[in-house]
Structure formats: C-alpha cells, structure tokens
Amino acid sequence: MTNTNIPHSFAPDYKVGRRYLHAKSGSPLTLRYIGPLPPTSSCSPPTQQIWLGIEYDDPSLGKHSGTYQGIRVFETAEQGSAAFLKLVGNPLNEGKSLVDSLEERYGIIDPAQKQPKKPQNDLDQDEIVLGSSKGAIKIEANWQNALERVSNLEKLRNIGFDDEYIVQLGGDNNKRDLMKKRLKGVKWLNLAKNLLNTWKEVADIVECFEGLEILTLSHSRINCISETIECQSQQRFVETFRQIRGLHLSDCLMTMSAMAILVPLFPALEVLYLEANRTLNILNIVSKTRPLQGNTTIKELRIGGCPVEDWKEVSNLFQFFLGLHTLDISYTLVSIVPADQTRIENITHLALLNSCLSSWADLGHISQQFPNLVSLKFTLKGQDRQEEDFDAKQECPSLAISPSATLQRTLAIAMFPLLASFNFTTVIPSERRDAEIFYISFVDRYLCKYSEEKGEQWCRYLDLCKTYGKEESKAEKKSEGLRGRMITLNIITHHTSEPTTLSFLPSTPIPLLQRKIARQLSLPLNAPINIWTARETEGRREYIASVTAEETMVKRDVGWWFRDGDMAYVDPI
C-alpha cells in the first residue's frame, strides 16, 4: 500500500521506488512507502504524521517486514529488512550523478571549462609543508601541472566509483558527447554500491563508454527487467551492452528468473559474477530459465555464497551454460557429491573454498565428473590455518577430509590427474609423483584398517597401483600393536642378487632408514647412500623415485614412500 493522498504541506520530494541514503548512518536503502501509519484500532483517529517506509540493503538493519501492528503497509524483497522513518527535516539523502563524481575524481570533462582554483590556506598557494618537518621544509606544489595530469581522461583504462553511490548519469548532452569522445579507452567501470534503480539508467551510463568490456554493479538493488519488455527497448539494451564481456552482480538480490531475461541482453558476455545473492534459487533453473538454455558465451560463473545446498543444483547449471570452463561454488552448503557417470569435459577450473564437504569420496566423485580439471581451490569450512601435525594424521587414514592443508594438497594432486595448480600454487612433476606414491600407501593403510572396504571406491587407486607396479591391497587383518604396523622392505643393491629384508615403523624418518640400511650392509653409519622406490616388471628392475632427494627427505617418512613388502633399491655413493 502506498498513500498518494498526502496533504500538500507534508508532500516530500522523495519518490517511492527510488534509492536513497539514510541521512544519519549513510546506509543505502529503497523507499517503499510514503504516508501515515494505519490506525491501531477502528476507533483510533487517523494521524497526520507522515512516515517513510524504507527497506535497507542490509537486512540486519531492519526492524520488520513492512508491517505495522500486524497490518501490511508495504512489501519487501527480504524478510526483516524494513523500517519506518518519521518525515521530519530530511531523513534521506540522494546520491551523486556520475558526471559530478567523474569531475571530482578525474578532472573536468570539458577542456574549455575553467579548472578549479588552487586550494586556499594560510600558506603560500604554491607551497606544501611536509608533515614530518613541522613547517621547516616546504616544496613547490605546482597545482596546475597536477590538475592537467589527473584530468587526462583519454588515458584512463579502469575507473571506479565504489562507495560514491551513483544515482544517475547527470550532465547535459554536451558533456555526455564529450564523455563518449574522451573516455573511449575505458575498459572497466566499477559502479559497485550504487543507487541506480533501473537498467535503463545503467544503459544511459554505459552508452558514454564505447570501449567498455567489464561492468561492476555489485551491492546494487536494480529492478528486474519485465518479461514483457518492448522489442525496441530490448534492441537498445543489446546494442548498448554488445561489448560487455564481464558482468559483476554480487549481492544484488538477483534471481534465476531475472537472469534469464538479463543474460540475453549481453551477447558477448563471458564472465558472470553472482556471488552472495541470497535469492538465487538454482534448483528452479530448469523451469524458470528457458532463455538461458544452450548459452555458449559464458565461460566463467561464480555463485559463491548463494543458497546452494544440493549438488543437483550445480549439475543443473551445465544444462544451460554449455561453454562453462570455470566455476566457483565457494561458501555454499553443498555437503555431499554423489557418484555420477556424467563427465563434464570442459570444466577446467573449480573453486570450493570454505567447503562443507566431509569425505575424500566427494573429491573423488568430483574428479570423475570433471576429468580435465587443472586448477582447484579448496579449503574446509572454518579452516583458517594450516595444520602442522601431518605425521599424526597420516598414521590414521580416514574417509573424513583432514583439516591438514598438507594432506589436502597431497591427496587432491593424486585424485586429479591433470591438476596443475592447487590453492594458487603450481604442482610440479616430482610433487605429483610423490603424492601419487603416498596416496597408494594411504589407501592401503585404510583398507587394512577397514577390511570390508574395496580399493575401487577410492578414485584412481587401482590405476595408480598399475602405474607404480604395486598390487591392490588385499586388506589382510594385521596383528595389533607395533608388530602389526611394521613395514617390511626388500632391500636390494647392484652387488646382491637376493634381497635383504628390514622392518620399520611407517613413521621412521628417512635419515634413520639410511643409517639402519648402512648398518645392515656393513657400511659406516654416516655413509651417504641413495634409496629409490623400485619395481620389477617382466624380470626387469625399474627405479621410480628417489627417497633421499634433499628437498623431500626431511618432509617424508617410510610410510610416505613404502608399504609392506615393497622393494627398495640402495645405491652406496
């Protein structure tokens, strides 16, 4: 309900539906209602006090959902985001025009217009006092030269008005024409935290930046375009937005229905940011987003922080964004990834920061669905630091994803065969080899602990066993105590034809392994010896990885490299 019968003496300059700033707090909001509050009872006389019904962008600032004494006064986009303000003085402030902000930040648009005067103060206008000199050191300001350099609009490539709360384009036709001429080089325009109300207002601004490729409108509350948009208006939008490749709409209360109308208006769109949109219901994508079906232009999609709880919602995306290769689903509530034979070949980059996943099997299922993944960003929910107690973790293999960042990285590298980057750090070939060898021993120890489990349930385990010449663990139950945990190695050298057996705890450091082997071979205890993992294929021995390489010897132990019954080749130097 919006009261329009307001006495002239009370009539404010505000308009329902427009965006404003709270005069005291500066918080952005939308004006939803102007008028008196409803009477508290049928006997109460109507009040002459005019109130403003507002909806805050931040719902935590609200006090109700547009109701007064149980009576609905106006509708809100979010529950609990509304409040009433008494119309006394000027409780709401308007935002700035883009033209005014541009000239304040970057210089005068019209070169023929007079430059602003030099600042006035008690000092000489051409001098600046260095703050730490207490007035002892003065330097020439040369304000005119500074203004000329700042106002060189033709050289601008990225411009931003974040926190400026732009409400409209502003300026006359002459200034707009000059903007088009002087700002052709601008590629990225940041209008985050604006007070724009319609996509027409957005189009008015974009038309002044003919070379624009990236548009940021995050933290906005722009009204959705109508499904019955006129053909002429649609053509204008398509023409205006034809070069936009990146669109940032994080925290804009976007819905999939709105996106279905909006995305076709950006024919060249490749990157779409929809993070933190609390109203984005991806589960209904099939029934409500038919215009999105078959989209091949969008390559990167970010929906981190959106209300995504089921992996089915993620799977639905691939029916519509056929060209997608980068997906960010960080800070979502997805906790299980079911096994699925569907393979999405084009996904190469995935972000799962602050993830609710709990099982290594979930990562394995992702590996199977995204076989060409080359970049993965992954952390557990609440994981704010790297766990250092890695050795203790590897002694107790479990299906539960460990909080150890080291173990996460190692197992992820082994699970994703093409992974070249994990959490922004490059994966080198030797690290992959080490990770895959450890992964085999990790799964072996798990299978020994849980004899009813099968190795095929672990992603890539059987393939890696074949690659490194190891047989699948038979999961034989070992005796309890230290003896049951011992790893027996078959030690061979180029001097011996028959192997020598030695047993070690999995946690045995590699330097101690060297000393024990040296003693067994009657060598000095400090004798430098190289130790290699080895396998025998068709009567031919193959040496795979150096256990005693300087960069890995301190970090790895026997349990990392070997499992019970493995062959170790020793080369005394």
Automatic annotation (TrEMBL):
PROSITE patterns: CAP_GLY_2. It comes from the Eukaryota. Gene3D superfamilies: CAP Gly-rich-like domain, Ribonuclease Inhibitor. InterPro entries: CAP-Gly_dom_sf, CAP-Gly_domain, LRR_dom_sf. Residues 50-86 form the CAP-Gly domain. This is CAP-Gly domain-containing protein. The lineage of its organism: Eukaryota, Fungi, Dikarya, Basidiomycota, Agaricomycotina.
